[in-house]
TrEMBL record:
Region (Disordered): 1-27
Gene3D superfamilies according to UniProt: Aldehyde oxidase/xanthine dehydrogenase, a/b hammerhead (3.90.1170.50), Aldehyde oxidase/xanthine dehydrogenase, molybdopterin binding domain (3.30.365.10)
UniProt protein name: Molybdopterin-dependent oxidoreductase
Bias-annotated ranges (Polar residues): 1-17
Residue stretches making up the Aldehyde oxidase/xanthine dehydrogenase a/b hammerhead domain: 36-142
Signal peptide: none
Source taxonomy: Bacteria, Bacillati, Actinomycetota, Actinomycetes, Kitasatosporales
Pfam families per UniProt: Ald_Xan_dh_C, MoCoBD_1, MoCoBD_2
InterPro entries assigned: Ald_Oxase/Xan_DH_a/b, Ald_Oxase/Xan_DH_a/b_sf, Ald_Oxase/xanthine_DH-like, AldOxase/xan_DH_MoCoBD1, AldOxase/xan_DH_MoCoBD2, AldOxase/xan_DH_Mopterin-bd_sf
C-alpha cells in the first residue's frame, strides 16, 4: 500500500485529538457479528403470528395470460390469502424512473420468472405448496431476444403503448433509450490514421450474486398503514414506488433498514417490498418473505449484457486519431435504470484517453430476456472491456508497449471529455499505469517444490489436471474511468440529522440518516466524520429509516461524498451552535471566546492554538443541539439527445490493474496468480475500508472475466442456470493476491477531497485478466467470460 496526498483541505485536521476520526483505519462494528454468524440479516426477522409470503412466477418468457385458477390453493389449510393482479388495492405498476413493471403480471408476462400470483400462509412450505397449486393458462408469444428481433420493422412490441419521455426520441419502440455523442469529425480524422483496428465484443449477463436473498417483514399498523423492514439500497425511492401501489400516503408507509447481505446494485429496484406489504394489509397480519436462491435469480435485475462494436485509429508514433463505436445494451423486459446505464456507457465509452474526434452511439433494448438495471460499474464496465481490448490491438499493430501506448494517450486534469465536459480534478491515469507496471512480478512456477507440484497453485487446482505441463504465463494491463454520483441533471442530494447531548456525563453525538449500509462501510465513515467535526468520542449511528430525509441510493460510489457531505454540513452547524452556547455561558471569562478560532477537539472547546476553554459537557449541561441539513453536489445537466454534449457528471474515478495469469493451454483452464490495482481515492477516510472495497470490486471483475454469466436460451428467453451450482462465483481458491496501491489526490469540489472508490476497480480488472489470457494463448478472445472451450477451440 502506498499513498500520496495532495491538496487535502485543511479542515481534515479538525478533531485531530479525537481518536477514530477521518483518515484512520477503523474496524466495522458489525464485523465480528458477521463473521461469527450472529448478525441479524433481513431474512432473520421474526414476528409473532406472522405469515409467510410466496410468489408464483411465470414458466414462460412471453405469453398472454388466458386464465388463472386459484381455487385449489385457497382451499388448502393454513392459507390466508391468494392474490392476483385483480386483487391489488391501487396502482398495478411501479418503477424507479418509469412505472412499467407490474406488481403482479396482468394481461401478459414479458419475461421468465415474472410474478403472477401471491400466497400468504402460516408456514413457508404451505405457502410454496399452495403457490404450486395455482393453475395458469398461457398463450405463448414469440420472444424478442436480441437487437435484430427487437428492431425489425415488424417486431412484436414488448410494450405496446409507451408513455415514458424517452419514447419520442428513439427510432423503434423496442429501444428504451438512445444516446449519441458526436465530437469533432471522426471520418476526417480516420484519414490521418496509419493504422486502424476494429473489434466486435460480447459482454455476458452478470448477476450481483449477493449472498443474502431478497427478504423483509411487513407489519400492518393500527392507523391503516404498514411498517416495512427490508434490505434495500434506497429507502426513499422504494417508498415512492410502494405507497401508490398500496393506495396509501407516504407517511403511512414507514420503512426501516434491515440487515443487508450484499447488494451491488441488485437491491436498487423493488423486489418483495410491495408483495409482502399487500399481503400484510390484506390479511391484517405480519408477513415475511424470503426468496430462495432460485427465486432470487428472477427477483432482481442483472448487469446488462452487451454487444460492442469499436473502431480506433492511430498514427505511427502512437497518437490515437479517432474512435467510432456502437454499444447495444439488453435491458430486458422492463425499463429499470436502463436509460442511465445507456448514458454512462456512451459518455464513458472512450475510456480515460484523449480522443478529439469521436462518433458514439449507445442504445438500450426492450427484450423478453430478464430485466437488467444497476450493477457495480453501471454501463462503464462493458465499455471498458471493449476499449481496453482495442488499446492492446492498437499497441500490437504499432509494435508499442501496451502500457506506454496507454500513457501516451492518457487523459489528465484539464482534458475535455467527448461530451465537452472538462475534467476539473486530478486524473492520474499515466501514474496509475506506471505503478502497476513497476510492481515486482510474482515468482515463476510457484507450484514447484522439493516435494513435487503443489496443484493448488496450478490451473485446475485440486482437480489435479496438470503438474505444469502446458502451463503458460501471461501478463495484461488495463485502466478505466467511472463517474461518481448521479448524473445528467438528476437532483442528487443527501440528508443528515445530527444531535449532540450529554448522556451519563459524556458528550454523545447521534447520526441519523437514511443511507443504506450494504457492506460498503458507511457504518464506520459516518461516525468518523462526526468525531472529526464535533470532537466527541462517543458516536451513535441511528437505524436508517424514512423518518429522516432521503440519503439517496447506496450506489454510484456516492455515499461517502454525499451522505458524508451531509453529515459534515450538519456537524458544522451543530458545532457553531455549541460554540454559541459556550460564548453565552462563558464568554465573559476568557477573551478567546470572542476573538479566537474555536474548535471542538477531544471533548473540549479549544482555540486554534490548542488552549482548552471548557469541556463540551460543561457547555451543554442539560441542553441538546439537533440539526437536519441537506447536502447537494454541483449541478449536472442532461446530455444533448443529438450530440451528447453536456456537463453530465460531477466526478470521475480512475483505477488500473495488472493481471498475471497461468493458463493450461491444453485444457483451457486459467489460474489468476495476481491482480494488482492502483487507484486514486481522493482521500482515504477509512484506509482499511478502502483496501476492502478495491479488493472486492477487483474480485467481481475477475468473476465476469472467467466464470460468471447468466445463460439465457436465445430461442425461449428462459434462464438456464438460476443456481449457485451452475452460476459460478469466485471462491477464496479462485481469488488471487490483490496488492493495492492507492493515491490520495484531493478533488477540491468534494468533502475532504474524497472520490468514489467501490466501482472503478470493477472496470479494469476484467480487461486486464482477458489481456493476460490473450498474452498467454495468442487468442483474440472478444467475449466475456472466457470459458475453457474458448481456449481449446472445442466450443
Amino acid at each position: 500500500m502506498a499513498g500520496t496526498t495532495t491538496g487535502i483541505p485543511a479542515n481534515v485536521t479538525q478533531g485531530s485529538q479525537t481518536k477514530g476520526g477521518v483518515g484512520e483505519s477503523m474496524l466495522r462494528p458489525d464485523g465480528t457479528l458477521k463473521v461469527t454468524g450472529e448478525f441479524a440479516y433481513s431474512s432473520d426477522m421474526w414476528h409473532e403470528e406472522m405469515l409467510w409470503g410466496q410468489a408464483l412466477r411465470s414458466t414462460v418468457a412471453h405469453a398472454e395470460i388466458v386464465s388463472i385458477d386459484t381455487s385449489e390453493a385457497l382451499a388448502m389449510s393454513g392459507v390466508y390469502a391468494v392474490l392476483t393482479a385483480d386483487d391489488l388495492p391501487a396502482a398495478k405498476n411501479y418503477g424507479m424512473e418509469y412505472q412499467d413493471t407490474p406488481v403482479l403480471a396482468y394481461g401478459k408476462v414479458r419475461h421468465h420468472g415474472e410474478p403472477v400470483a401471491l400466497v400468504a400462509a402460516d408456514h413457508p412450505e404451505t405457502a410454496r405448496r399452495a403457490a404450486a397449486k395455482i393453475k395458469i393458462e398461457y398463450k405463448e408469444l414469440p420472444v424478442i431476444t436480441d437487437e435484430a428481433s427487437a428492431t425489425a420493422p415488424d417486431a412484436i412490441l414488448v410494450h405496446e403503448n409507451r408513455g415514458d419521455h424517452h419514447a419520442a426520441h428513439v427510432p423503434h419502440p423496442n429501444i428504451v433509450h438512445r444516446q449519441p455523442i458526436i465530437r469533432g469529425n471522426a471520418a476526417e480524422a480516420a484519414k490521418k490514421a496509419d493504422v486502424i483496428v476494429k473489434g466486435e465484443y460480447t459482454f455476458g449477463m452478470q448477476d450481483q450474486a449477493f449472498l443474502g436473498p431478497e427478504s423483509g417483514l411487513a407489519v400492518p399498523a393500527e392507523d391503516g398503514g404498514v411498517d416495512l423492514y427490508v434490505a434495500t439500497q434506497w429507502l426513499h425511492s422504494d417508498l415512492k414506488q410502494i405507497a401508490p401501489c398500496l393506495g396509501l400516503p407516504e407517511e403511512k408507509v414507514r420503512m426501516t433498514m434491515a440487515g443487508v447481505g450484499g447488494a451491488f446494485g441488485g437491491r436498487e429496484d423493488i423486489s418483495m417490498q410491495i408483495l409482502a406489504s399487500v399481503l400484510a394489509l390484506r390479511t391484517g397480519k405480519p408477513v415475511k418473505m424470503v426468496y430462495n436462491r432460485y427465486e432470487s435469480f428472477f427477483g432482481h435485475v442483472h448487469r446488462h449484457p452487451a454487444k460492442l462494436y469499436y473502431e480506433h485509429g492511430a498514427t505511427k508514433d502512437g497518437k490515437i486519431t479517432h474512435m467510432k463505436c456502437k454499444i447495444v445494451l439488453d435491458g430486458g423486459a422492463y425499463m429499470s435504470s436502463t436509460p442511465s446505464v445507456v448514458g454512462n456507457a456512451s459518455s464513458l465509452s472512450v475510456g480515460p484517453y484523449v480522443i478529439d474526434d469521436v462518433e458514439i452511439e449507445a442504445i438500450g433494448l426492450y427484450t423478453n430476456n430478464p430485466p437488467c438495471g444497476a450493477m457495480r460499474g453501471f454501463g462503464a464496465v462493458q465499455a471498458c472491456f471493449a476499449y481496453e481490448a482495442q488499446m492492446d490491438k492498437l499497441a500490437a499493430k504499432l509494435g508499442m508497449d501496451p502500457v506506454e501506448f496507454r500513457q501516451k494517450n492518457a487523459m489528465e486534469q484539464g482534458t475535455i471529455m467527448p461530451t465537452g465536459q472538462p475534467v476539473d480534478s486530478p486524473a492520474p491515469v499515466a501514474e496509475l499505469l506506471r505503478r502497476v507496471k513497476a510492481r515486482p512480478m510474482p515468482p515463476e512456477r510457484q507450484w514447484e517444490s522439493s516435494e513435487g507440484a503443489d496443484v493448488r497453485a496450478l490451473p485446475g487446482g485440486l482437480s489435479n489436471t496438470t503438474h505444469g505441463e502446458g502451463v503458460v504465463r501471461g501478463v495484461g494491463y488495463a485502466v478505466g474511468i467511472k463517474n461518481v454520483g448521479f448524473s445528467e441533471g438528476f437532483d442528487d442530494y443527501s440528508t443528515a440529522k445530527i444531535r449532540i447531548e450529554v448522556i451519563n456525563g459524556e458528550a454523545v453525538a447521534t447520526v441519523h440518516t437514511a443511507a443504506a449500509e450494504v457492506g460498503q462501510g458507511g457504518v464506520t465513515i459516518h461516525a468518523q466524520i462526526a468525531r472529526t467535526e464535533l470532537g466527541v468520542q462517543q458516536v451513535t449511528i441511528a437505524p436508517a429509516d424514512t423518518q429522516v430525509g432521503s440519503a439517496g441510493s447506496t450506489s454510484a460510489g456516492r455515499q461517502t461524498y454525499m451522505t458524508g457531505g451531509a453529515i459534515k454540513n450538519s456537524c458544522e452547524i451543530v458545532r457553531e451552535k455549541v460554540l454559541e452556547i459556550g460564548r453565552r455561558k462563558f464568554g465573559s471569562y476568557h477573551p478567546a471566546w470572542a476573538n479566537a478560532e474555536l474548535l471542538l477537539e477531544g471533548g473540549k472547546v479549544v482555540t486554534d492554538g490548542g488552549e482548552a476553554l471548557a469541556t463540551i459537557v460543561d457547555v451543554l449541561e442539560d441542553e441538546a443541539v439537533e440539526v437536519e441539513e441537506v447536502f447537494r453536489h454541483r449541478p449536472t445537466e442532461a446530455f444533448d439527445l443529438r450530440t451528447g454534449q453536456g456537463n453530465g457528471h460531477v466526478q470521475y474515478a480512475f483505477a488500473a490493474h495488472r493481471a498475471v495469469v497461468e493458463v493450461d493451454t491444453e485444457l483451457g483452464l486459467v489460474k489468476v496468480i495476481e491482480l494488482a490495482c492502483a487507484q486514486d481515492v481522493g482521500k482515504a477516510v477509512n484506509p482499511l475500508s478502502v483496501i476492502g472495497q478495491i479488493q472486492g470490486g477487483t474480485t467481481q471483475g475477475l468473476g465476469v472475466a472467467v466464470m460468471e454469466e447468466i445463460i439465457v436460451d436465445p430461442k425461449t428467453a428462459k434462464v438456464k442456470n438460476p443456481s449457485f451450482t451452475d452460476y459460478l462465483l469466485p471462491t477464496i481458491l479462485d481469488t488471487p493476491t490483490i496488492p493495492v496501491d492507492y493515491l490520495e489526490l484531493a478533488d477540491p469540489h468534494a468533502p475532504y477531497g474524497v472520490r468514489g472508490i467501490g466501482e472503478a476497480p470493477t472496470l479494469s480488472s476484467t480487461p486486464a485478466v482477458l489481456a493476460a489470457i490473450r498474452a498467454a494463448t495468442g487468442l483474440e478472445l472478444n467475449k466475456t467470460p472466457v470459458r475453457p472451450e474458448h481456449l481449446t477451440g472445442t466450443q
